[in-house]
Amino acid sequence: MSKFMNLARKFNCFYFNGDLQHCRPFLVCGKQVGVMQARVVEAACRYPDVFQMDSSGMISMHPSLTTYEERSARINHVLSQWKEERLFVTLKGWRNECYEVRTGFADPPLLKMDRSAACLFGVRQYGVEINGYTRHPQLGMSLWLQRRALSKPTWPGKWDNMVAGGLSVGHSVLDTALKEAEEEASIPAYLLANLRSAGSVSFYFESERGLFPNTEFVYDLELPPDFVPHNSDGEVDIFDLVPVNQVMERIFTPEYKTTSCPTTLDFLIRHGFINSDNEPRLPELVELLHIPLHYLYSQSSSQSPISPK
């Protein structure tokens, strides 16, 4: 198996190797919105007025919680207690910024929760990533990469795409892209006029913090060779302009953020740097950049997500 395929299996580790036998579907209003690991199920069962388990083992938010506001308030109360108890490591990164929980991206939100907790419930997360690139007269085609600040609660000090950010409550995809581009890289409006949507990537990752069925909306932004991004929100250590051939090596190092690799690989494929000549399993690789998360979660609520073990 090629190193590109091995990398794709790494950021899709839960899709291939997740312990579904000890996970339970998480339902809201009768529809599956997530997957809960055994340790989270055990903690949730301490709150029978918020969560209930049926005879088949599925976990649902209590049917008495009938509105977005009620569900959001009650789950925030539970999460705040778990945070105080230091029950889950992911809650150390409490953001005071919320993700919305939906049955599908186009569906109305059912509740919101702090973004640090989304992985505890295996709810689908959405974000934006921007590939900033330039055709440098000496270096050739190159990508701007950022090194994440050591103060970041996740992946501190790791190399990442030029701009990235989660889709929080109240912000559209494009709004998020423009906001993050300004905050993280100080890109002026006249350059952002060249921002081009490039679809999305999806993956199903697992870490010690929880489960990450993520979809990232991808943008490409060609920048002039003399432009140098600089950070304004304290979340980036440095930026580095890296020739594509070096990017294709750096993504395999432990210094590169694993869950940013799908966006980078997608860029390299779309621009022809990874092709059927240097990756014979290119069709499989492309498929592993687009895990069908919405399809998996739309299965009957009596089933867990499918895994091609």
Automatic annotation (TrEMBL):
Coiled coil: none annotated. It holds the Pfam family NUDIX. This is EOG090X06MA. It comes from the Eukaryota. One of its GO terms (molecular function) is 8-oxo-dGDP phosphatase activity. InterPro entries: DUF4743 (IPR031804), NUDIX_hydrolase-like_dom_sf (IPR015797), NUDIX_hydrolase_dom (IPR000086). Residues 113-266 form the Nudix hydrolase domain.
